[in-house]
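Record type: monomer structure entry
Structure origin: computed from sequence
Chain ID: A
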Amino acid sequence: METQLAKAARNIYRYFNGQTDIRQVKKGLSYLFQTNDTISLDTNGENTGPDLDVFLTELQKQPSFPATLASWEHPMADKIELKDKDATEFLRQVFSTLEHDKLIFTHKNVAAHEHRANNTWGDFHTIRPQIKAGWTLHVTREGSGHYNCVRTELNTEPGDILLFKPTAYLDCQRAEHSEEWYYNWVLFQAGNRIVDLLDWPEVAPGIFHIKAKIGKELDNITRVVDNLSTLGWSNDPNEVRIRATAVEHLMVRCNQLIESRGYHRTDPRIQAAIGFIEENLFADLNIEMVAEAACLSVSGLTQLFKKQCGVSVMQWREEKRMTVACNKLIHSQKRIVQIAEELGYVNQMYFARCFRRHMKMSPSDYRRKYLEN
């Protein structure tokens, strides 16, 4: 006889194939979220999470979703008993297909926790190559998460805090060496009151990282995040403003940490250079043009940019282009040579070498991996 986990997975599969109604999905998801300490969907209109109907509709629109669902046709056949191991893998694959979130996370200034434990359905891979619904902050509390930051790979420990711009490449999962990963996340909009508090040390284009010490520093951060988590997901303007105040409090706490730990701030001229590069990402830029936009000499820009960003101006641009390449490879059927041209590369082979250097695989392998899995 199938377990509740297997029944929940089967009902989700049957729903997407038009074989059952949404009531069975609600029952299945309620069971899943009760047994796994993670965010739950709002099934009762109580503003406790993403709306179930919107989530299910948008999930079906994800680029790799149809192939993922089709690959389970045989294991999900009515006459075959679904084992827990297979049910877990099916759920992991389904949730891993969620690559863009703007229509799902229409709520503003919200927070939740995630618990990803080995051999559970919640241990899925999050990849967000498209523009996100807002700024995203992650705080690791227990275990370790693994982030592909394009420039580098990062395994977090308790106290690590990562901040992502809406345009940043977000790619994370539980680290292989850790049996679990427990973290908080916050999705927020950068209003005028906090825009000056988002000057964090950058580790990759649009990705920022600081670290709180275990104890008082981390407690100050997590206390605010936990409070924000209790404020719900209502889109009522007054509730959104209340949560915005909590986000501001959180950013102030993080900035106290940045100042006390001696993290550097980004020079306004480097911010101008980065803005100019992003606005002209696919144009035929040279270092002189970027220097002029930053009101610096070429030598001054070169030295200051490397000191503050850790890479050269053109390396930073290449990393940013690679994140756009990931998006285009997943969300279009364009030939790789055409994508290379759109990104400003006149030589497909050079583009492929750059991509492999950053993503540790060829463009065709990347496309295959995220469309077939």
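Annotation 1: The two ends are 28 Å apart (CA to CA).
Annotation 2: The chain is about 45% helix and 15% strand.
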